[in-house]
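Entry:
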Amino acid sequence: MNVAILVDIIKETKSNWRFVFESPLYDNIKFTPGQLVQLVAKPYGPSEGVDSIQRNYSVASWPDGSNKFELIITYLKGGKMSEYLFNEAKVGDEFAYNGPMGIFTLPEKLTDRDIFFVATGSGVSPFRSMLGYIAEHNIPTKNIKLFFGTRTKEDIPYFEEMKNYEKIIPNFEFIPVLSREEWTGKNGYVHEHYLNVIDNMIGSKPLVYFCGWDRMISEGRQHLAERGFEMMKDIRVEIFG
């Protein structure tokens, strides 16, 4: 178990906040973009009959040689960790964590096939980590598309950052989809938009990554299975709710 100090809270959107942690026992946290940490809030163990609060979160930052990592967390009414972070936690608080760990990572070569990221809510976290790493290291890729589904424009985290990645990552496209607000971008539900692209592709399949709510991922896997996509070979998932 490692120790982390909460050093910043950034209210990215009304319901999506960025929590920046520093690990004082390390000069450099090494990890692979897309991995997660298990965050443990006080108390770390049973104390006066109260169990510790722990939750897995994908790391939203990328390895940059520092001892900091960022999580973006969606407020979930009644969720123990969510309520604690949004209503009680403050800069300077101490947490415990395990990791980073996990295999929800990019393939070794990014020039072999197109990659589609599909996310809802804070499920954008591992993709932001991957994109930041690709941009910082100028890694060549085939086409990468990030389809992000949410209700309204104000619910989109990292909006300006993602639009900037479109300028600095040659083959990247950010496609936010709104289900509750009319705007100049895409409307409806996220599935219809990436499936429309897939259905019009000839002779190849993208590698599709899903991260978000369980229902979205289950529906997405079913849609792709009907099109001949296979788990691990063509589909990778990370579920957070």
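The chain has a mean pLDDT of 91.
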